[in-house]
Amino acid sequence: MEIDAAREVRTTCPYCGVGCGVLAKIAADGQVSVRGDPDHPANFGRLCSKGSALAETIDLDGRLLHPEVYGRRAGWDEALDRVASTFSQTIAEHGPDSVAFYVSGQLLTEDYYVANKLMKGFVGSANIDTNSRLCMASSVAGHRRAFGSDTVPGTYEDLELADLIVLVGSNLAWCHPVLYQRIAAAREKRPEMKIVLIDPRRTMTADIADLHLAIAPDGDVALFTGLLAYLGQHNALDRAYIAEHTTGFGQALFAASKLDLAGIAEATSLSEDELGRFYGLFARTEKTVTVYSQGVNQSSSGTDKVNAIINCHLATGRIGKPGAGPFSVTGQPNAMGGREVGGMANMLVAHMEIENPAHRARVRRFWNAPSMADKPGLKAVDMFKAVGDGRIKALWIMATNPVDSMPDADAVEAAIKACPFVVVSDVLASTDTVRHAHVRLPATAWGEKDGTVTNSERRISRQRAFLPTPGEARPDWWIIAEVGKRMGFGEAFSDASPAEIFAEHAALSAYENDGARDFDIGAYAGVDVEDYDGLAPFQWPAPSQSPPTTTRFFANGNFYTPDGKARFIPIRPATDTRTDEKFPLILNTGRVRDHWHTMTRTGKSPRLSQHIAEPFVEIHPADAQRFGIGDADIVRISSPRGEVLVRALVTLRQRQGSLFAPMHWTDQFAAKGRLDALTASLTDPVSGQPALKHVAVRIEKFAAKAFGFAVTRERPASVTATYWAVAKCRGGWRVELAFADDNTDWAGFAASLFGAPPTSDTLAYHDRDAGQHRIAAFDAERLQGALFVAPGPVAVSRGWAAEQLEETHAGQRERFRIVAGRAGAERPDAGATVCSCFSIGANQIAAAVAAGCTTVASIGETLKAGTNCGSCRAEIRVIIEARRVQAAE
Ligand SMILES: Nc1nc2c(c(=O)[nH]1)N[C@H]1C(S)=C(S)[C@@H](COP(=O)(O)OP(=O)(O)OC[C@H]3O[C@@H](n4cnc5c(=O)[nH]c(N)nc54)[C@H](O)[C@@H]3O)O[C@H]1N2
Ligand SMILES: Nc1nc2c(c(=O)[nH]1)N[C@H]1C(S)=C(S)[C@@H](COP(=O)(O)OP(=O)(O)OC[C@H]3O[C@@H](n4cnc5c(=O)[nH]c(N)nc54)[C@H](O)[C@@H]3O)O[C@H]1N2
Ligand code: SF4
Ligand SMILES: [Mo]
């Protein structure tokens, strides 16, 4: 496409479900810069660390730029014909359920719509499922059980209007940072606003909480059924709302009364006093919003957790009112859009139901579909089992990396490897999933493609292209439509642009609707290319007739059940012990501030890679002692399915008996960091969502003979160490290392790691008795690589070592300083990066505190830290607090 370089293009961030507006600009020299869109109603100009670093992630390094068929470059015609003919042939021989699509909440709505249409209306199977199964499925199921529809009742403004925000299983400070900042700003204006955090770990989000309940893993059902009983006992019910707009209250209350307060205290491992404080606060605060995320959804009781929460809101009539409601926040940029197009195997498009014959008939009419799916398809975990046992013979994966992100990931990888025909559409040439594809299809990436996404508050925004299309990459919707055409469905897949697809999607949402379905954007059914280009962010519902008077749902009932009433779901707390003698600890998994999922994007950014540069596990000091683990040791975590090697981080933020490890590291970035090799395919019985936060494991110290740390100019081609992890830094790469065996040839190892030209000068220091080795190689004045080896975790400053890659080293003195492994006295070690925007480390902040800065604002004035995106403000506050405690001791 033609790109107007002088213009700032209005688009939407491709990361989380907050859905922030972004202004992207290309300067005359081609340099791209981004800033928050001040006019976007999700962020009003703010961006978090990931959004701010978007320009660092759009280079073409590692991109898949041409179609490939069986490992060789092919033209689009050949690749598309091959996909279409193999799918058609498989369907002809084995029936429509022998093929499957596994798609993603990172597809745009238009891509998602076309994929779903092809599978459910034309292939005639519902075997299309999505990574949203791992993410939002329990919320969807809970909404449908209670409301008769998958409706998020509230809006972001409610978070600012609330007097009490309850955050359940959500690390908002790191995972929805701009929402967190909106709450922090609102609370600064209204300090009386209260925040309760319910999370087994003391996360950075605890920084803003008045009360942190370090709940036992999966204690949430007991906690919220207990709350319902408490509301009943303390006359805190909205009896009029219950009578007029709901059914089933009596049974729900009866079920909730199974445990007394002592029983709840035991099931949640919270004290009766803590419970009393939380319950009392909830009971007396009318304007309460309960925000929940993966600590709720990713559980074998996920749907019950959702309904236990919703029950409390229905019982108090706190739903769809300004400042009150249950609020499931979405993870991916288009998790919500995927739900609108019915992207899951048990849904139909436009919030219709696949089990409902009238709905199926309506969609068939609208699409003029030859073979509508007539039953739900396989949900993700079952889908990959069917791939593994040969029932699915052709699989197309789009915009997701299941070899890393599916539970029991080694089994998923084996299934993919065994599948006769695997197609992967991706933007990268090499991911842990792409490596197994028979056909690789190059998709256009963020900044190159056009479409829409829907955020957590049902707001639809445009993603707009501002970069030229690289190589032969094509948008996902085009790729899918071309395959549809080649399978013989030309007429149905003739839409020539995202605008046309969006108009069709909008028309279907209004088709025979008349207020019977929540999702209605009929007002946009007539958009043309020009309207679509200028489309401003809008919230649904947006029906074509009467414009809605409110963007919230259910304040006055009108639920999407046959009788218009909400359903209370009777929920009984149940206990479930997964640990045993062999696997005595519970592994909890999740995210870190500056990485996104399998690091395909954030791993490219030096700024984002510095905050946390290797896979780790958080362990409580008592557990560390029990299992003989020291801080910074390398540890092996094992489950019955697999193992990983990660760095131990001993911390009181972790609960005793539990571990926490992030999901981000893959074979591309670490020797053995694929966390989902450990997780189980145990799922919630209603939603099919896997229980990714509660896995029985054991931990042991990895007996390393030596530890190492290196910086290298080029990315190491291969690393012959038992443990390694690479992270991008400004001048090259940082490499963490540990070795199971004695090594005598450190010079040889260094040479293979650095890949330095033979002309380079090498400087080495060896103290064999002490097990200390340091080797640096220089090419002219530039450092090619430096390796530091020690018998224990290497104590060299990472930031300082990485900086040496960017400096010139003409004199022997500077070169020796590297081999000495010490920053010069005039250059104190900045410490671990806290503020990614300005590269400010923990030691610098601590020094500023020692020099008299006692607030986050004064740190900002002195160091600039925390003054751009603000994502690190919670961490800065923690450092200030820690210093204060030290000073007081
Ligand atoms: N930086 C960053 N942000 C992201 C993403 C990312 O990869 N990186 N991904 C996006 C996506 S797709 C998603 S889905 C969201 C996820 O956003 P979040 O759900 O906020 O993130 P998680 O870290 O997965 O898990 C949240 C918390 O649940 C807690 N938890 C675990 N078990 C329980 C439990 O039994 N009960 C309770 N109450 N809490 C529990 C964990 O300790 C963890 O702190 O983040 C989005 N934003
Ligand atoms: N243990 C554990 N596992 C988890 C979770 C957890 O908390 N714990 N969380 C789960 C959740 S909530 C989620 S959402 C998943 C996320 O897991 P994944 O979806 O597997 O993670 P991503 O790294 O986002 O993968 C996106 C892929 O799409 C590619 N891509 C990017 N843009 C485009 C595009 O425009 N078109 C195409 N075709 N490809 C593109 C990227 O290169 C990348 O390969 O992980 C789940 N797995
Ligand atoms: S909060 Fe951050 S990651 Fe999420 S949409 Fe906004 S800028 Fe992007
Ligand atoms: Mo997610």
From TrEMBL:
The keyword 4Fe-4S applies. It is an enzyme of class 1 (oxidoreductase). GO terms for molecular function: 4 iron, 4 sulfur cluster binding; metal ion binding; molybdopterin cofactor binding; nitrate reductase (cytochrome) activity. It catalyses: 2 Fe(II)-[cytochrome] + nitrate + 2 H(+) = 2 Fe(III)-[cytochrome] + nitrite + H2O. Gene3D superfamilies: 2.40.40.20, 3.40.50.740, ADC-like domains, BFD-like [2Fe-2S]-binding domain, Dimethylsulfoxide Reductase, domain 2. GO terms for cellular component: membrane; oxidoreductase complex. PROSITE patterns: 4FE4S_MOW_BIS_MGD, MOLYBDOPTERIN_PROK_1, MOLYBDOPTERIN_PROK_3. Keywords: 4Fe-4S, Electron transport, Iron, Iron-sulfur, Metal-binding, Molybdenum, Nitrate assimilation, Oxidoreductase, Periplasm, Signal, Transport. Its cofactor is [4Fe-4S] cluster; Mo-bis(molybdopterin guanine dinucleotide). InterPro entries: Asp_de-COase-like_dom_sf, BFD-like_2Fe2S-bd_dom, BFD-like_2Fe2S-bd_dom_sf, CT_Nitrate-R-NapA-like, MoPterin_dinucl-bd_dom, Mopterin_OxRdtase, Mopterin_OxRdtase_4Fe-4S_dom, Mopterin_OxRdtase_prok_CS. Residues 6-62 form the 4Fe-4S Mo/W bis-MGD-type domain. One of its GO terms (biological process) is cellular respiration. It comes from the Bacteria. Its EC number is 1.9.6.1. PANTHER family: NADPH-FE(3+) OXIDOREDUCTASE SUBUNIT ALPHA, RESPIRATORY NITRATE REDUCTASE. Catalytic subunit of the periplasmic nitrate reductase complex NapAB. Receives electrons from NapB and catalyzes the reduction of nitrate to nitrite. Belongs to the prokaryotic molybdopterin-containing oxidoreductase family. NasA/NapA/NarB subfamily. This is nitrate reductase (cytochrome). It comes from Mesorhizobium waimense.
